[in-house]
Amino acid sequence: MDPSPPRISPLEQALHAARALVLAxxxxxxxxxxxxxxxxxxxxxxxRWWVEQWPDGVAFVTGLxxxxxxxxxxxxHGRWPICPVCGSGDxxxxxxxxxxxxxxxxxxxxxxxxxxxxxxxxxxxxRTS
Length: 129
Prior knowledge:
The chain is mainly α. The protein has three helices and three strands, in the order H-H-H-E-E-E. The chain has helices at residues 10-28, 34-53, 61-76; strands spanning 95-97, 105-108, 113-117. The chain has a three-stranded antiparallel beta sheet with strand order 1-2-3, with helices on one face. Helix 1 packs across helix 3 (61-76). 29% of the residues are buried. The mean pLDDT is 89.
């Protein structure tokens, strides 16, 4: 018999992808300390339950995990991620758009630009497109 690898459900695939993308953004800003990684894990656990209740929401998991972590960091550590586009004025955080939709991006509302897809902040330093 040829043992087949276990099939991973679409929900688990989405949760693993969301975790990896948000961790990549955290690591790009050197914010991925153990306590922050725990915030990601807490969000993934909560979103697993949320998608089990609303399976059509699986496409929205990445943006929701990013927002969850951003909110938790604001309460514990301060704003994240800080906008890499605006060089003057008060430092401000990027926001996730769409708030509830597929293909989430980090956006600077002050400059009116998409900065990077969630998971791609490391390649977006100073980007203005």
